[in-house]
Amino acid sequence: MGKRNEQLHLGAFIYYSGHHHFGWRHPESGAEGLFDFKFYKKLAQTAERGKFDMMFLADLLYVRGVEDSASGMLEPVQLLAALSTVTEKLGLTATVSTTYNEPYNVARKFASLDHLSEGRAGWNIVTSQLDVEAFNYGKDKHPEHGLRYEMAREFVEVVTRLWDTWEDHALVIDREAGIFADGSKVKEVEYKGQWYSTKGALNVPRPPQGYPVLIQAGSSGPGQDFAAAFGEVIFTAQQSLEAAQAFYRSVKGKLASYGRSSGSMKIMPGLSPIIGATEEEAQRKYKELQALIPSSMIVGMLSAMLNFDLSGYPVEGQLPEIPDPVEATNGMKSRVQLIMDMARNEQLSIKELGGRLLGARGHMQFVGTYEQLADFMQLWFEEYGCDGFNIMPPVLPGNLDEFVDHVVPILQQRGLFRTEYAGSTLREHLGLARPGLRHFQASHERAKEAAGAADNAWNGLIGQEAVGTAEAGSAG
Amino acid sequence: MGKRNEQLHLGAFIYYSGHHHFGWRHPESGAEGLFDFKFYKKLAQTAERGKFDMMFLADLLYVRGVEDSASGMLEPVQLLAALSTVTEKLGLTATVSTTYNEPYNVARKFASLDHLSEGRAGWNIVTSQLDVEAFNYGKDKHPEHGLRYEMAREFVEVVTRLWDTWEDHALVIDREAGIFADGSKVKEVEYKGQWYSTKGALNVPRPPQGYPVLIQAGSSGPGQDFAAAFGEVIFTAQQSLEAAQAFYRSVKGKLASYGRSSGSMKIMPGLSPIIGATEEEAQRKYKELQALIPSSMIVGMLSAMLNFDLSGYPVEGQLPEIPDPVEATNGMKSRVQLIMDMARNEQLSIKELGGRLLGARGHMQFVGTYEQLADFMQLWFEEYGCDGFNIMPPVLPGNLDEFVDHVVPILQQRGLFRTEYAGSTLREHLGLARPGLRHFQASHERAKEAAGAADNAWNGLIGQEAVGTAEAGSAG
């Protein structure tokens, strides 16, 4: 154990065949396996070999440009169900959008995964992000982010209530007496919200974990409030220890008004490691990766990311001032702000900025030795910049093996990371309590009584920012 | 080979811990495992050992009475994804409702399962059945069955078009040239229907089978027309060879007007075997099963099934005339008619009828020796009453093992059933061609040109019957 008397947590964030946008072009990428179970089986077993808390799958409800980008994703919760059969301890978590699903289906999806995996499921709650996603579902546009936010809050309320419709130990299976389940332990919920209603019981008994672990990725003000109400794991993008500490303090500071302890939430920034035995090796790998980016594409992709045409600006020059994006786009505010901050703080040219963003989508990219990365992680953890990291290998599967083989042992030697799983559920790995019935309702009521103004504060924030984006861990 | 110069097809229909309503009370039922992967793993591996074409999972979007009935179901497509990892050849099929899902999500769900299983997926298309299902999704009532039917037709149209948005071999993955996919082979679909619209490409490449196998369960007139348009496997409930032959002729007779051959559809009635080495053993097993039914419950359950209060009628007496149910209930017509026909034809008392229905939900219940069952199956198959059977063991897992160990070998000895899988996809097992792009659109257009009146006939039938019910294989 280090200074914190607890250990850090690790997620293996799987995104196409690597987080680097052009990582699929790397000779060692597994791009041919993107729709093949064997590719994911190897990744999950590597993460479990490294004693990771969990594997995390992103989700996007559209096809991005297929010619130059790895595109398409298997339905992630199905994929996790398949992976539950080839792993024993690893947490299995995925993004599912509240905007393009029914609460009953989502409650059932994660309850089923939690049963199949015997308590290893987690749901990354997002509201999706783009109009092109709306088009696939027969809508003209993606709902504006304030509305999505409001809807998501109700959605999660319905889902957690449905998980509670079966009490623990409701199944009796008394053949002689002819009693399958204790009827007094299976109750209908009747919920009428502004956006979602439900009346009935879920068709799956209460998940082994009570609730599958609730994950959330919003970093902005209202995102933090949603996180404080529901989030148990928070994915975030942070570019400096100071910013990470400020975020950590801010989100954890809101927990008390919801009746929650600081330990009931684990904050895990994204971290993309480009590492080697020596600094030279790491730098060489970084250059190899950056060389995969067609320079002709940087301006176009950066323009798309910022929703601002940069084609008239010199690529070696600085980024111009980008107009306040909240008016122009939908839910992209914190991403654009982060990009502008990064460009200014590090004096990056348009070309350099584009390269950085295509490398890790706004997350921390670390280039250095295995020891240096361990030092970096230890510092952030011990100085309360985070409770762990969501590891985003630039090229998969190889860079996950490299992290497991070279960095995990150092963290273990320092007592910062487990050498064996102590428990068997994801909640146990993360040190999160198993929720009782109506966990969040109760905490909301406590919050109301204690703070009085909590709900007003909440309402005041609606309309400013999305809960999270479909690219979990991105700065949405 | 027998008289037909082809072999019959077998499905292993998994429904709770057995199809007998009180089969869960049987000492050998696996009721404790209903939410445990190991229970299903054993069943799937048994079906594969028996060289079954496929395993079939029903789905219900509500909880039936939990105190005396096995209740709750894991999300079936996730479960199949998990089972794909512990089987190699077995087809993996499940019910998914068109009424409570989005076409984009369903297209993706089955495309993902088809990739994970390398071409073994099948979708049983149903529209769900009951108001209690609607309540779970925030609706006041289940849509009336004509409307559901119309919606389902559009739903399937959208799903098949989405499967076609990626042509075969669209993935290129040329690292040097930086080309992930051939952009000319990934096209957006733009579909604006009355009920569903979509604009974009699916986020999963074309399924290995082109389309996962499309399964359908409607037996009535409009159900047969839907089947003739889209159905490749038809589950049906038939109580006599004559009725089965009439159904077979009727549905297959409609195929030509859709430009389809007779072999492009496999008709598989449900069959619940209660079998033994001797007739005495089979009869003893039947009595054991019937003894599990609490006699106090027969009247209530039969009343619920018929939507008609039978409590004033003597249980030893005949069933009274039940009023035309189409007005009173929603989509239950053919089920109620089947029940009334069964009671009249076999002169059953209310008690006997209830016992029969709780045994196999209106499907053929066969009581006899292994040889007698093989004779029965051979007769129905060779006399064109069917192309195979969907086997509905009354108690699971044991009765599936029994069928595989004792009946399959007889069918194999007679040349009626495969001794080894010849292909590796479900289409190959079933002898169904792999569809090209826009398979159904093309056949619809052919049908229009050829018949002219096909669409009018279709429209005239709308409003009379549902596509199918959530209990696939039931007489809906």
TrEMBL record, chains A, B:
One of its GO terms (molecular function) is monooxygenase activity. CDD domains: Nitrilotriacetate_monoxgenase. SUPFAM superfamilies: Bacterial luciferase-like. Gene3D superfamilies: Luciferase-like domain. InterPro entries: Diverse_substr_monoxygenases, Luciferase-like_dom, Luciferase-like_sf, NTA_MOA. It holds the Pfam family Bac_luciferase. The keyword Secreted does not apply. Keywords: Flavoprotein, FMN, Monooxygenase, Oxidoreductase. It comes from the Bacteria. FMN binds at D59, T95, H145, Y149, S219, S220. Belongs to the NtaA/SnaA/DszA monooxygenase family. PANTHER family: ALKANESULFONATE MONOOXYGENASE-RELATED, C2H2 FINGER DOMAIN TRANSCRIPTION FACTOR (EUROFUNG)-RELATED. This is Monooxygenase YxeK.
